[in-house]
Predict the structure.
Amino acid sequence: MTEGQKMTDNEAGANKDIVADEAEGKTETKPLNVPAEMKENGDSKQAVTEKVSEPEKEFEPPEGGWGWVVMLAAMWCNGSVFGIQNAFGILFVYLLKEFGSEDDKDLQFKTSWVGSLSMGMIFFCSPIVSVVTDLLGCRITAIGGAAVALIGLLASSFVTSLGPMYFTYGIVFATGCSFAYQPSLVILGHYFKKRLGLVNGIVTAGSSVFTMTLPFLLKMLLVEVGLQNTLRLLSIFMFILMLAGFTYRPLLPPTSKSKSGGVGKIFNINIWKSLGYRIWAFGIPAALYGYFVPYVHLMKHVEERFGKDANKEVLLLCIGITSAVGRLIFGRVADYVPGVNKVYLQVVSFLVIGLMSMMIPLCHVFGGLIAVCLLMGLFDGCFICIMAPIAFELVGAADVSQAIGFLLGMMSVPMTVGPPIAGYLRDRQQSYDLAFYLAGIPPLVGGAMLCLIPWVERRRKAREAAAAAADSGQKMVEYKRDGGHGDGKSIEPESVI
């Protein structure tokens, strides 16, 4: 070995790795644990500069602390938003009395548009809310949304005809609810990871709790203070929701990826390359044309069939109770169902929901309606709680939020037009029977479409496995052809010790 190729211990210790700080134009020397590679340039030796970047620490949520306050705030958001939406059937009856006329043959059709627009706008705005949340953050988006919802609900209390109610309640109030709702789910990931499933279950159960209790409160308020004052009192819920938004203190550090991605990252079109997701994204909306019909028209149907004194609010109570139970039970069951076979749980859910909708006109005993609502609520909880797990299986963890956002946006159309169609049929038939029969058909059709997803996904995975095997075989042939050297570099076998 020549003298120029030797390196003394002192030289090894003095060897430094030069790290360039591109942002500030400074350099920092850092000792290496091993000798640096040396280059021979005449009689001199040069150290090869090498950039060293320390790996970023993965963010670890605190799994509690202030997160429990955030969880309660998110639970209030979920409950107040969807509790009011699900209890619209109570408001619907009083809207008919307040703004209706016995000579109006399309009264049910026109009035049901108020609730349908409201529910539809919450989902329709979901993709837009994703962008705004990414740009402004959870806190600002949630507070601003709650403020808009408060204005919409207050404005609704001053209208004197049905037309303005479409705008104040159906659009302004619902749009504010949408902007307040979505950040309440996003912020949970800042505080929880290991307990995120439990926390999500508690938060989404908020809508069930409000659905159980709000109908009785609304009935009492409507009788005692009237429709306008009831809407003003409901505005207090939105004011509390605005205060709850202040608790959404973000913990996740901003990343260069999110900053550079911007809107293009939110609207990720790669998810549409999955055939399984495309079937799911069109099958779910197809199943939901009759989904919201019972929430809007069931109260009026009970009043017409069993009299105005019938305890119709107990039906929403039954739906709320079993929906909460269903979310807990089927959320746990889904953990034991492998892969996209979780879709079959949604298929069963739509099958039962569709059949129960068709059973409503056949129930001439009030106890039969209670049984129908218990089953409907149970499988409604099943359908909702496994949305995220299925999205994860179809598109992967990186694209779950985009996948759900697009799906919610597409769900807005059927959830908006279903109840008005049912109201139109009621006005023409003088009965809700045909409306409920037809409301049960879309869930059956949509559920049948979803049955294709496991078969499609199995074929896709088989193709990917075959392609991977073929690629591995090609690389092995090239490796042998090069005499055991890939790209001209020596390949050392892994140690078996």
Remarks:
- The beta strands are 16-21, 26-31, 38-41, 44-47.
- Residues 1-55, 255-262, 487-497 have pLDDT under 50 and may be disordered.
- The CA atoms of residues 42 and 403 lie 61 Å apart.
